[in-house]
């Protein structure tokens, strides 16, 4: 039997020391990322350099394997996170230079759906934490109220969910964009981790009533189909559902929400991972009264809204314009035009900077063949795609 060299307490102390060293190194690396951004201001180089990132990852994987006996998957996952953070830091720095008036406002009023702990609330905090911006949080009961609060000037920004990987597009928000005067100024994708929460550790068979927002009901439909005799009650948000369960304080009610948010209401998770899809994400957009300037060095998205003539091939003709100028479309959504039966409005997300030559040429071409065309916003693409390499 091998004699233990260190006591458990000594091992833990050493681990704490190593963790402190890691935190210090990560902080130093972040500071160097800002220095990289400063150098790119003078050289006008783009934030991302795919070739450089690939070379870096390969070098790190080889060093990790040969010198430190570290697994390639472990190294790749770790440095994907570090690279993503570096990209977002550099983008934020360049955006502050492009929008100096925003960098002078460390406090922002933000409107979102639901109470504290709702997914929109979590998305708001995540997005603005990247900007080092303190928030005055304004919770709203409806998506329209979020837009109205920003349009009236009572909030600087609004955060709206627009699509989910499980339940698809959130039509109410798309319909809202058809009539609003607001601009899209940012985006965020948030992992959604649905679970059942209750006031105590009850069994599923005891649940008589379940509270949640309609979207989670869709996203968890397969799990819910297995529950027998349970009444589904809709709430304005998952946070409101959890607050309802807290107020009722009964052993036969539960809510669908996030386990971390549930703790804010004194609730505990009784069933985790109940969504139809393991990878469940919601994309949120951030809206404001004025558009934002986007640095040409940053990957950007442009969102359009347009309607076409009711002729065969009209939509295809617009898509061919985008193809002609090499603009990649990441989203195409159609919604009926209120008051105009059988006519539709199309929402298009494009991977292109609004001020780029190809985008301006495409807009010129689209204006000639569409009945209505409006730019809803050009904003930094904050979904950082992982650097792709082939693992040996």
From TrEMBL:
Keywords: Amino-acid biosynthesis, Aromatic amino acid biosynthesis, Coiled coil, Cytoplasm, Isomerase, Lyase, Multifunctional enzyme, Phenylalanine biosynthesis
Cited function: Catalyzes the Claisen rearrangement of chorismate to prephenate and the decarboxylation/dehydration of prephenate to phenylpyruvate.
One Pfam family from the record: PDT
Coiled coil stretches, renumbered: 8-35
Pathway assigned to this chain's UniProt record: Amino-acid biosynthesis; L-phenylalanine biosynthesis; phenylpyruvate from prephenate: step 1/1; Metabolic intermediate biosynthesis; prephenate biosynthesis; prephenate from chorismate: step 1/1
Keyword Lyase: yes
Name listed for the protein in its UniProt record: Bifunctional chorismate mutase/prephenate dehydratase
Primary location class: cytoplasm
GO terms, molecular function: chorismate mutase activity; prephenate dehydratase activity
Site (Essential for prephenate dehydratase activity) residue list: 282
Prephenate dehydratase domain boundaries: 109-289
């Amino acid at each position: 039997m091998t004699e233990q060299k260190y006591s458990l307490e000594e091992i833990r102390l050493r681990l704490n020391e190593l963790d402190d060293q890691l935190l210090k190194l990560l902080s130093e690396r972040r500071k160097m990322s800002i220095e990289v951004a400063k150098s790119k201001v003078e050289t006008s180089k783009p934030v991302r350099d795919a070739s450089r990132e690939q070379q870096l990852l390969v070098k790190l994987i080889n060093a990790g394997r040969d010198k430190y006996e570290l697994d390639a998957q472990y190294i790749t996952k770790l440095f994907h996170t570090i690279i993503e953070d570096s990209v977002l830091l550099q983008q934020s720095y360049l955006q502050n230079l492009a929008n100096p008036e925003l960098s002078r406002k460390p406090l922002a009023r933000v409107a979102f759906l639901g109470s504290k702990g709702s997914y929109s609330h979590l998305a708001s905090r995540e997005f603005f934490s990247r900007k080092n911006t303190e928030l005055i949080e304004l919770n709203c009961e409806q998506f329209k109220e979020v837009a109205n609060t920003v349009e009236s000037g009572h909030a600087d920004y609004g955060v709206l969910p627009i699509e989910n990987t499980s339940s698809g597009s959130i039509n109410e928000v798309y319909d809202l964009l058809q009539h609003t005067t607001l601009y899209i100024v940012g985006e965020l994708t948030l992992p959604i981790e649905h679970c059942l929460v209750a006031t105590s550790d009850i069994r599923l068979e005891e649940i008589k009533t379940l509270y949640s927002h309609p979207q989670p009901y869709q996203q968890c439909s397969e799990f819910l189909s297995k529950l027998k005799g349970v009444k589904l009650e809709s709430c304005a948000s998952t946070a409101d559902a959890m607050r309802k369960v807290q107020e009722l304080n009964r052993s036969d009610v539960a809510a669908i929400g996030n386990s971390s948010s549930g703790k804010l209401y004194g609730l505990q998770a009784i069933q985790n991972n109940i969504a139809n899809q393991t990878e469940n994400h919601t994309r949120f957009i951030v809206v404001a009264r004025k558009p934002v300037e986007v640095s040409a060095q940053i990957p950007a998205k442009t969102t359009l809204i347009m309607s076409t003539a009711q002729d065969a091939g009209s939509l295809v003709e617009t898509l061919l314009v985008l193809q002609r100028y090499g603009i990649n479309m990441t989203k195409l959504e159609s919604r009926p035009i209120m008051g105009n039966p059988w006519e539709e409005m199309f929402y298009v997300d494009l991977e292109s900077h609004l001020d780029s030559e190809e985008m301006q040429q495409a807009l010129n071409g689209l204006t000639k063949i569409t009945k209505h065309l409006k730019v809803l916003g050009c904003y930094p693409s904050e979904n950082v795609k992982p650097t792709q390499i082939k693992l040996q």
